[in-house]
Amino acid sequence: MPKSNASTQQFVPIRDVKENIVIKKNGEMIMVVLASSINFALKSYDEQRAILMQFQNFLNTLDFSLQIYVQSRKLNIEPYLELLNGLEGKQDNDLMRIQLREYIEFIRTFTTDVDVMSKSFFVVVPYSPTKLNVTSSVTSFLGGVKSSTDAQFEEHRLQLEQRAAMVTQGLASIGVRTMTLQKDELVELFYHLYNPADSTGSAPAVQS
Length: 208
Hints:
Structural class: alpha+beta
Mean pLDDT: 81
Strand content: 15-25%
Helix content: 25-40%
Low-confidence stretches: 131-148
Number of strands: 6
Radius of gyration: 22 Å
Largest sheet: 6 strands, antiparallel
Number of helices: 5
């Protein structure tokens, strides 16, 4: 009978998260780029063809693989309701206060009966160093495994950032805005990836 006391961390392929880079246990380094969506269905036929051609050209310029990850999460409405509750107390007009209270109750009831989902799009940009050294003093937030030396890390990060820049420029050519996830956002992303039932927290947003 298999043992049931194995640590969950053994099944998580992440060794460390350093600045805006995820270091996997096999030495691979990745950056995660959050991408906005475009309303493709509302584009004209010619615009749709142009977008598809530009996206094809973008993919053809890459000499490395990409992973596109789409995440659907139940929208955490509590921060919005807290904002509305704060606005309610600032209303001088009784009618506006009543309408705002009714609106708050409507939102609360609606989101209780219906799962309101938010959808986020991520592009995972990988880089696999040819030589790995695990003698650094940098420890993992997931288990204390050591990562590459600082000098090697900076060298490999430069290569990875160049790849990420190619991705952001290519997506910008088709009207997709992007944002590179930083450490706290990466930790939250992977936390929700392994804990999909937890609706706390909010997904990052691409700045317009």
